[in-house]
Amino acid sequence: MEEGYVDINSVPTRVISMGGWIVGQPIKKKHLIIVIPGNPGLIGYYEHFMRSLYDELLGEYVIWGLGHAGHDFPNNVTMPSVNDKPELFTLDGQVNHKIDFVETYVPAGVNLHFIGHSIGAKICVELVKRYRSKHNAAAYLLFPTLERMAQTPSGRKLWPILGPLRKVVVFAASLLYRLPESWLTPVVEWAMRSKGSHLAIESSTSSGSAPSAVHVNVRTTMRLLHPQALERSLFMAHDELKVVGELNADDIRLHSDRLVLYFGTKDHWCPMEYCQNLQRQVPEARAIVCPHGFEHAFVLQSSQQMATIVSGWIKDLS
Length: 318
Fold this sequence. Notes:
Radius of gyration: 18 Å
Distance between the termini: 23 Å
Strand order of the largest sheet: 1-2-4-3-5-6-7-8
Number of helices: 11
Structural class: alpha/beta
Largest sheet: 8 strands, mixed
Number of strands: 8
Strand content: 5-15%
C-alpha cells in the first residue's frame, strides 16, 4: 500500500493506492478501481476494505482510494476556507473534485470501476454518466444515499447539528483535539469499539503486518476531530440534506447495465422503502438487498465480507 496527498483545485487530497501509485508508475493493468467514500470522507476508513478487495482480486486490479476535498489533509497546510470557497466543499464541489482527479491522473485505455459508499454512491452515478464511453465505467453502490436524505431517520435526527448547532460541534471538537494524544486515543478507541460487539471481527487483516482495522479506524477518527476537517464534513452533510431530493430514476435506468446497488435492511440513511421505490421505478436495475444485516457504516465491522461480495460483481462487469 502507498499513500500520499495530491493537489486538486488547491486542496491537498489524501489518496491510498494498491498495485501502483498514481504518478510515476504507469498502470500496467487493464482495470482500475477507484473507491469514493461516504461522509465523513476520510479514505483511511476504507483501508481494510481496499486491502481485502485487492487480495480477493488476486492483485490483478489497481485500486485507488480518493478522500473528499478538505476532509483529510497534511498538518501545517493552509487550505481554502469554507467561508471563502464554499463551492469546493459542497456535494457538487466533491463531484467536480473527483472529475478533476480522473482527468488528471487516469490514463486513456483504462477501464474504470467506481465503488461508492453512501453519498459516494451518488457521486459515482455522476462519474459513470461522464466516463461510461471513455473508460467503459461501471459503479458498485454500497448503501447508497440517492434520494430524500433530509426525510430519512438519520437526516431528521442530524439536521439541527448540521445547521444551527454546527459551530458548537466544531468548537467542542477543537477542545477535544487539544488533548494529549495519549489521553484522546483510548477514548476514541473505546467509542469506536462501542459501535458494535462485532468490531473484533476486523481486528486483523490478511495482508501480513498490516495494522488492524480497529487501529486504522481509531487513527482515522483522530484525524476527523481536527476542527477544520470536521467543519468541512458537516458543511458537506448539511448541503447533502438540502440538495439530495427525489430519486433521479432516469440516470439509473440509462446506466442500469453498468450499476450494482446494495441496500441494507436497517439503514437509517436509506430505508427499505427507498430501495422499493427504486425497484418500482427502475425494475431492470440490479438492486440487491443485503441478507447479512450489515450496517450502513460497513467499514467499521464488515469490510472483509463486503470486499468478497464486491469482488464478484467486479469480475462480472470486467
